[in-house]
């Protein structure tokens, strides 16, 4: 640590010509980022040496998204330097907290899938497993959301400006990726050769982000590829007068790593998205194969030493790319290449929402990736033939990879991977029984479940130091190392003093959040009120609208029917995909309700609505520790798992939810008495759907619904009215908010009543914390290690 302080001083002198006492916060930030990165690079060198020597099997985790969150606090925390640096800086008049705030959130992801990838990198590293992540170095991450007059506006997120100090550019490992052009088959005495001509080559430049582990010697790497033109324009084409084509490489290169697609549910057949996916999977695969070959001088043992994990279908082009490399570059036969490929890949499915299951039209795909297309076609031909042979031809409508001139990427993944997993028990059951039922029949045992988990070191250790310190002292076990030991807390479930302490800590976190709310929205919230939190992407299926509808119901009852509920603060935070009109309208509705209530002196005594803009990892870290109620109210069967539900539970919030995703397992863990469950089950939803759900009947037959919707139509702040949303609720809403409204409303009343029994509530909260052990990413990744990857810790 002495060295660390010396290094900071040296860096400031060398780079800025400053002593520490003359330095600015910005300069200190840069020094800390660079020195931490270099420390990790040194540690990485050591752990990588061991890894090379042991020649053990490794996992490569492919994901279009890694929602890393701020890195500096995490790294200093993991390296165990945090307290000393805090002290050192304080001596010179600097606050480490303020320095942390300078770092932008690397927003290289949209939501759950991206954050899960990062939680897993953290957990695997802390547990000394050899994993390397691959993704894209997006110049612009997920947009910055600004709420203006209640509407979401998107601004570019130029995170590299300050975020680049954590990255290490590896100019020795650049790779070329090829697009467009034609392939020619050439037969010689040695067999078939594929010649690829007239292609456009793009350079992939690697930037490494080091991933530190808690109390561990291991440092893993997340490699992010940046696209670059391969050096100016094509002189030959230029001479031929094909000017625009001569600049093609530059134009494509410019765009590929420019920005993260802000839609997490569909790609609408965008050519750029195909290019992004192939760009990063091809660069990564070429790198992996080369490293392997350099080590073993053969690829015959590839599948024994390498697992490639495909995080949803976005990286699925890894599969034909490996086939291409094996056949076209290393002269493997189809059968040998296929045998290696099908032992190498494992695939996680994160959603059953039809619009999110990726499909590419052949007409769009083939010209961009001609060779990859022929490989996919051949995989499909052989698969279809095999289905014929085993008597499954009747199910090819569901299973063929190419269908009606469309490539179905999930089908490619299932056919080519040795393992397919869902992310919660319910989700995996739905995959097996419904979404992919024919596949499950022909590939018995291929589908398995690994329920998601979260990095508790970030979501409790760092986000809630007050609770962590308290539990450390109380329990005397190292639950940061091993979260399962937190169940010792159960021994105190009837201990009044402990329950009160926990309540006090919750109040401290509520106070901190209230200050943040005040500074960012000017709304003053009552910290004695129930903090009721719904934070996640804005999607119809997640049903922020059901929550909003219930608030409108309360508003009306308070204003006109003399209802005096226990005070509650409804806190929302959510980004909507920029092209998702309904989602943006729902944000507007929530913001309008917030405004209307603020303007009403009677109603605002009881309820408040806060919409916090720009939801991101660092904001979640502020909200989650302060929550009393965790709203997980998706339509049953639609949320694959959820992970926010786990983070909230870990911090003592009590779940109000449907029997959906991992809520089912939270319910199993805490028991009926420590969770609020409402609404239709996934089977009931299916039934109702089949029997023609008629929203209007709920409107006609339920007085509260009718009055609430009618009242909603009268809400009008300025130029916006909400008839459009009211119409949707009573007609086409496929997520059936009205079918669950009565049950939701009644359960909300139970929540309110229970909260007033402080002893009872505090005990529920305690049980939630105590039972959160199984939702640690340590447990989840251990299951991946044992059930799927079969790898060992770095020796
Ligand atoms: C999400 C799921 O919606 C969420 O339920 C799950 O917890 C999370 O993945 C992690 O598994 N999915 C996505 O973010 N995106 C896609 C394309 O599925």
UniProtKB/TrEMBL annotation:
InterPro entries: Glycg_phsphrylas, Glyco_trans_35, Pyridoxal_P_attach_site. Its EC number is 2.4.1.1. GO terms for biological process: glycogen catabolic process. Keywords: Allosteric enzyme, Carbohydrate metabolism, Cytoplasm, Glycosyltransferase, Pyridoxal phosphate, Transferase. PROSITE patterns: PHOSPHORYLASE (PS00102). Its cofactor is pyridoxal 5'-phosphate. The modification N6-(pyridoxal phosphate)lysine is found at residue 647. It catalyses: [(1->4)-alpha-D-glucosyl](n) + phosphate = [(1->4)-alpha-D-glucosyl](n-1) + alpha-D-glucose 1-phosphate. GO terms for cellular component: cytoplasm. One of its GO terms (molecular function) is pyridoxal phosphate binding. The keyword Cytoplasm applies. It is found in: Cytoplasm. Signal peptide: none annotated. Phosphorylase is an important allosteric enzyme in carbohydrate metabolism. Enzymes from different sources differ in their regulatory mechanisms and in their natural substrates. However, all known phosphorylases share catalytic and structural properties. Belongs to the glycogen phosphorylase family. This is Alpha-1,4 glucan phosphorylase. It comes from Peptostreptococcus russellii.
């Amino acid at each position: 640590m002495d060295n660390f302080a010396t290094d900071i001083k040296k860096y400031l002198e060398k780079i800025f010509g400053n002593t520490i006492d003359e330095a600015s916060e910005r300069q200190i930030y840069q020094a800390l980022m660079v020195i931490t990165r270099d420390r990790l690079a040194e540690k990485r060198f050591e752990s990588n040496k061991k890894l090379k020597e042991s020649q053990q099997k490794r996992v490569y985790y492919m994901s279009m998204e890694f929602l890393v969150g701020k890195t500096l606090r995490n790294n200093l925390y993991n390296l165990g330097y945090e307290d000393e640096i805090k002290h050192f800086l304080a001596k010179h008049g600097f606050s480490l907290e303020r320095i942390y705030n300078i770092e932008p959130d690397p927003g290289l992801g949209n939501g759950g899938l991206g954050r899960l990838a990062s939680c897993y990198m953290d957990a695997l590293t802390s547990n000394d497993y050899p994993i390397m992540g691959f993704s894209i170095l997006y110049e612009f991450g997920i947009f910055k959301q600004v709420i203006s007059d209640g509407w979401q506006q998107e601004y570019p997120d130029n995170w590299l400006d300050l975020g680049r100090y954590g990255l290490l550019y590896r100019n020795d490992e650049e790779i070329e990726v090829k697009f467009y052009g034609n392939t020619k088959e050439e037969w010689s005495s040695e067999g078939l050769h594929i010649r690829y001509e007239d292609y456009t080559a793009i350079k992939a430049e690697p930037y490494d982000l080091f991933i530190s582990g808690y109390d561990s010697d291991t440092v893993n790497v997340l490699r992010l590829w940046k696209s670059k033109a391969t050096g100016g324009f094509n002189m030959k084409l230029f001479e031929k007068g094909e000017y625009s084509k001569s600049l093609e490489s530059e134009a494509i290169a410019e765009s590929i790593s420019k920005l993260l697609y802000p839609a997490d549910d569909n790609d609408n057949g965008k050519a750029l998205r195909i290019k992004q996916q192939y760009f990063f999977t091809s660069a990564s695969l070429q790198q992996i194969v080369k490293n392997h070959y350099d080590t073993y001088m053969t690829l015959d043992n590839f599948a024994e030493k390498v697992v490639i994990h495909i995080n949803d279908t976005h990286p699925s082009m890894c599969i034909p790319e490996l086939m291409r490399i094996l056949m076209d570059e290393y002269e493997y036969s189809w059968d040998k290449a296929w045998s290696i490929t099908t032992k190498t890949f494992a695939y996680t499915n994160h959603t059953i929402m039809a619009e999110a299951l990726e499909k590419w039209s052949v007409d769009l795909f083939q010209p961009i990736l001609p060779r990859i297309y022929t490989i996919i076609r051949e995989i499909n031909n052989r698969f279809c033939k095999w289905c014929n042979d085993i008597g499954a031809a009747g199910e090819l409508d569901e299973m063929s990879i190419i269908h009606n001139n469309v490539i179905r990427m999930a089908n490619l993944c299932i056919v080519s991977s040795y393992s397919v997993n869902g992310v919660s028990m319910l989700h995996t059951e739905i995959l097996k029984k419904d979404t992919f039922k024919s596949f499950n029949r022909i590939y018995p045992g291929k589908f398995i479940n690994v329920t998601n988990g979260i990095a508790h070191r970030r979501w409790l250790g760092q986000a809630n130091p007050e609770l962590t310190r308290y539990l450390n002292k109380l329990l005397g076990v190292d639950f940061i190392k091993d979260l399962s030991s937190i169940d010792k807390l159960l021994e105190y479930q009837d201990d009044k003093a402990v329950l009160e302490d926990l309540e006090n800590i919750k109040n401290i976190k509520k106070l901190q959040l209230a200050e943040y709310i005040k500074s960012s929205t000017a709304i003053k919230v009552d910290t004695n009120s129930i903090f009721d939190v719904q934070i996640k992407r804005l999607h119809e299926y997640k049903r922020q609208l059901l929550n909003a509808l219930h608030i409108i119901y309360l508003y009306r009852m308070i204003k006109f029917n003399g209802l005096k509920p226990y005070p509650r603060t409804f806190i929302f935070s959510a980004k909507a995909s920029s092209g998702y009109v309904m989602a943006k309208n729902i944000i507007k509705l929530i913001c309008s309700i917030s405004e209307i209530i603020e303007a009403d002196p009677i109603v605002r005594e009881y309820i408040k609505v806060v919409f916090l803009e720009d939801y991101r990892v660092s904001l979640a870290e502020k909200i989650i520790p302060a929550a009393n109620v965790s709203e997980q109210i998706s339509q049953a069967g639609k949320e694959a798992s959820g992970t926010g539900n786990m983070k909230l539970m870990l911090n003592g919030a009590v779940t109000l939810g449907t029997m959906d995703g991992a809520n089912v397992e939270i319910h199993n863990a805490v028991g009926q008495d420590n969770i609020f469950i409402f609404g239709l089950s996934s089977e009931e939803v299916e039934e109702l759907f089949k029997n023609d759900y008629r929203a209007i009947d709920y409107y006609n037959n339920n007085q509260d619904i009718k009055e609430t919707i009618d009242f909603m139509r009268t809400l009008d702040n300025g130029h916006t009215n909400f008839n459009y949303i009211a119409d949707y609720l009573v007609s086409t809403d496929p997520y059936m908010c009205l079918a669950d409204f009565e049950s939701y409303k009644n359960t909300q009343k139970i929540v309110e009543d229970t909260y007033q029994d402080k002893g009872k509530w505090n005990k529920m909260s305690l049980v939630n914390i105590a039972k959160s052990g199984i939702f640690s990413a340590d447990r989840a990744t251990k299951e991946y290690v044992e059930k799927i990857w079969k790898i060992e810790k770095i020796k």
